[in-house]
Structure formats: C-alpha cells, structure tokens
Predict the 3D structure of the following.
Amino acid sequence: MSDSSRDTAEGAGWGTAERGVYQRLMPSKVEKLSWLNPKTLWAARNGVLASWFGDPTGRTRGRWVAQRAAGGIDVGTVVRRDDPDAFSFMVIGDTGEGDDPQYAVVPGFLKVGQDTRFAVVASDVIYPVGSADDYGTKFFRPYQDYRAPIYAIPGNHDWYEDLGAFMRVFCGDAPPLEPEPAPRPLTRAWLRHLLWHRPRANDGQRLDEARQLRSAPEQQAVQPGPYWAVDAGPVRIIGIDTGLLGTVDAEQGAWLREVSQGPRPKILITGSPLYVDGEHHPCAIEGGGTVDDIVRDPDHHYVAAIGGDIHNYQRYPVQVDGRTIQYVVSGGGGAFMHATHTIPRVSVANVTEKDFRCYPLRGDSLAFYSTLYGRRLRLRRFFTLTEAEATAVIAQRLGIPPTRTPGGPGGPDGPDGPDGLDKTGGPARVTLRTRLVASLLGAGGRPDRTSRFRLPVRKIYTQLFSPSSATYSPPFFKCFLRLDVTPEAVRLRCYAATGNRAQEIDPPVEDEVTIPLT
C-alpha cells in the first residue's frame, strides 16, 4: 500500500514532479470556473435570494413530487436492488466543476471502484448552477468508464435552476415543471421572483448526445425523485435533499421518519453534513424536529451519516446511547478545496482531536493556501510556507503533536528546505512570519484561546476567501469513499487523489474505519 499524507509529505503529493494522466480524459477546451468572477456569482444568486426573501425549495420540491405522482411514480418508493449480502459501493461528493481537480479524481476512482455495484454522488453534481448543458463534460464524460449505476442527491448548486436538469438526468427524464403564477406585486416573494435565476430556454439541447457516454445497460439507474431509499444487501441507504439552504421540508421529513423505521442497518447520505468543522448542524425539518433526531433514534439503527457540500473529508465518531455513529463529511470529489486548517481544535459531542480525522491534514491545507495566495498576491516570499512550517505552526496553535513526523520528502522549497527539516536537522521552526501567515489565512486554534479578534478573522476567511481557491496544479487534495458491506460490518475507506501519477497508480488510504452492523 502506498504512503498516505499521514506517513510522508511525498504521500501527500508534495515534491512530486510527474503529473497524472488524468488530463487525457479531459476535453480539449476546458472552461475554468472562477468564483471571483462576478458573472459566476450573479448566476449563482438564488441561494442569497432565498435567504433574503424566503426559501421556495420545499414548495418546488413538492411540485416535483406531485408531478411524479401524477405520472404514476411514487417518490417514496424504496428501490430494492439485488445486491448480495457482501458488496461494495462508492461515494463521491461535490464533483462537477469540469476542470483539473474533478478529472484528477477519476483514475483513482475508476481503479478503486472497478468491482463496486454502484456509486452515489453526495451533493452538487454540477457547478455553478446545475445547467443541463454542463452534464456532458461534468458528469457523463468523467464517469463514462464507471461500469455501474450512479445515484445522486442534489446540492444547493443543483437547485440554482430549480432542479430541472437533475430531474432529467437522474429521474427518468422528468418533464419540466409548469411555471407558477407570479406573486402579488411588491411582496418579498415578488422581489424574489423578479430576481430569480432560471435556465435558458434552449438549455439541454446536447443532453441526449451526452447520455451516449454512459448508455450501457449496466450503467443505468433511475431513482424515483430527488430523495430516495435503496435497499442493498443487508443495509438501507437513504439519500435526502436539503435544497438551497440545508433544510428539509415537512413532506420529506415525514417520508424520512417512515423509511427510517425497522431494524435494518441504515446509512444516511445528505447534502448538508450533520457534523462539520467542529460544530453540530442537526438539519432542521419544517414543522419541527431535525434530521439528526431521526439518525440518533436507537429504533432506526443508523450506523453512519455521510454529507457533502463541504469540499474536504472529516469524520466524527459520536457516541449515542452506548453505540457509535460515524458522522462523515465527503465533499472532496472535484470542486475547489475547502480549507481544513481553519477547523479549531475539535471538542464536540465528546469527540476530541484524538478521535477526529480530516483530509487534507490541516498542515497540508495551510501550505496549499499559503502557496495559492502567495502567488495571487505576488507575495510568495512572505506568504508561502513549506509543508513542514505549516505542520509545525498548526501543531503549536492547536496544542497537539504534528500529525506527520518531519523528515520525509517535503513540500514547496523554502527556508527550511524540501526535506521537512530546518538547516540544523531539527523540526521546522515556528517563527513570527509563520504565525502571522497562519493567522491571516484563518488557521484554527484552541477553543479556550480563541480571542474576539481571531473568530471574526476565521469567519471572514472561510466565507470570503475560501470559495476562490480553484487551482490547476497538483497536489489538489481530492478524495472519495469506498464502502465494503457484509452482514456483520461496513468498512469505510477514504482514498486520496492528488493529481500526481503516484497517487493515480496506487490511491492512498487516508482514513479507514470498520462500522459494526450487529
């Protein structure tokens, strides 16, 4: 097995000269998506409008469900597959930017997933607004050689055009919704309606051509709606749609309570993670209660809850009534990388740093961002930290031992050299410059030492600067999951994809946990 980022800096992808062959899979012309582009931000405005003027997602979802019912399709139907008691499936989240980071995941995903029965895309299949015209290069082309069905749950970006393209691709070519009557003038709903982004009239003209890339019978899967339940082998996998703002409507909430009944072990796939960045986000259900209330209920027998939306990997093993539920973030499938170095020292639901896992490691995340912003701001000598410097300053701020021992092949060249050591052969020194760069880039700290100054800096950084972090040279720090199911247990592994050839040939395992089912 190849080294992971927990073993060596080379295993993390630093200092590797040979880029992977993933670019051979890409179209000759790639439109690079920039979240600093006002045109992109304006197209993706519906989330902001929903938060200002009211969220119409629940009502629109209800119209989709009603339309499916009128066509004889019950969205609440449980899909019953013929998988054996021992089988494997893949989970990959937040995929569709259509550029280098997305395609860099594909070789390792295909290699690890070649014997799996199906895959699930957990949130944000297509960026920036879920357009049908983008499915060719951002879904059908990258996964054309995955020979099994793919199910999906929508993320907020898939909702930016009212879910029309998602329903066409994953739900049996569902016909478009009839337009709603215009709201009463000069109301909040009227303002939202006036400013709302809608698909172009000719959107999706190339969709039938794109479908040919995944047209083999063994690749087909039709799910009943944007939320679904699948019985596969000994487990039930439940996918929920959290819409634009990370909530669940009353109708879907009632369905979730119903399909969660019974002793069959269950895995939740959600567009909004329930534990993330050291915080608990239980996910409200319209009318009362939360998704996590349902997950925690011992009568429902959930063993894991996996969420997309945040573009990295995190795992929180939470003790609930004498059993452990694994809460996982898995959104590193292709979109820009959300920082992990902004996560403070973890202390939530009795989960501590000893139990918590993330990818990329916080030090690698800080080194990645320091290089990125050093280049963008033309301040490389000041901003750029070696992976050893970044690892050392993160360990100091969090009060923990370095996750990776210095001494392996290092990261970007800098004053401490490429071997992860300083000139005296000892660990990298934490200097005033490294501390200042870490603070400017929002590095987390210990909760008991979080000052009123540091907290706003971290919030500003994560909300404003992080979404502009697209990059086109390795290491990308992408990831995907493989879950191996038996009647006794689920083995969950997180694999890395850096964009380097070494990790394409032998994708490293960044985290692994065995989840008992009995």
